[in-house]
Specification:
This protein is mostly helical and 163 residues long. The chain folds into two domains: 39 residues; 112 residues, Arc Repressor Mutant, subunit A (Orthogonal Bundle). The model has no long low-confidence stretch (mean pLDDT 82).
């Protein structure tokens, strides 16, 4: 269902008619928003906790995205296929993709916190197999190579201080 426009009836079934009627019969927009928010919060609270999924997410976060899917398989006793389906259901993405995001977030956070140029320092290459893996991931999340990104930051800094 991701990246698709679906009818509410297709997703919720008969409950959607009740919700649509309540919203249609309510006057002010603020009240309609309140009804919709209350309904969504109720649906959210009906969602059962998934301890295996939560455990995997915590492991990915605590390892800064370095844990492999094989390691998650060993720690949980579930196959990578099952873990991928569980992540798709709960998060909308695979555990490998979440690990990639967490790894890049570590690097990007340090980059934004530190005024020095950190692109060519090897501190964060430990999160990636090699420099080309790092560059490919960097392009994936920023749309630019590290060198072009650094040029843009330097150009922005010059323009900022010239003003």
């Amino acid at each position: 269902m991701k990246n698709k426009i679906c009818l509410l009836n297709d997703i919720l079934g008969s409950i959607s008619k009740q919700l649509e009627e309540q919203i249609a019969n309510t006057g002010p927009v603020e009240r309609k928003i309140f009804l919709l928010q209350r309904f969504l919060l109720k649906q959210f609270s009906l969602h059962k906790e998934d301890s295996i999924f939560e455990y995997c997410v915590k492991k990915i976060q605590s390892s800064n995205g370095k844990i492999t899917i094989k390691e998650l398989e060993k720690k949980t006793g579930y196959s990578s296929r099952w873990l991928n389906m569980k992540f798709a259901d709960n998060l909308g993405t695979a555990p490998k993709n979440l690990s990639s995001i967490v790894r890049f977030k570590q690097y990007y956070q340090a980059l934004t916190d530190d005024n020095e140029n950190r692109f060519m320092k090897n501190d964060f290459y430990e999160y990636y197999y090699d420099q080309s893996h790092f560059i490919k991931t960097f392009k994936r999340y920023t749309g630019l190579s590290p060198a072009r990104f650094e040029d843009r930051i330097n150009d922005f800094g010059k323009k900022f201080y010239e003003v």
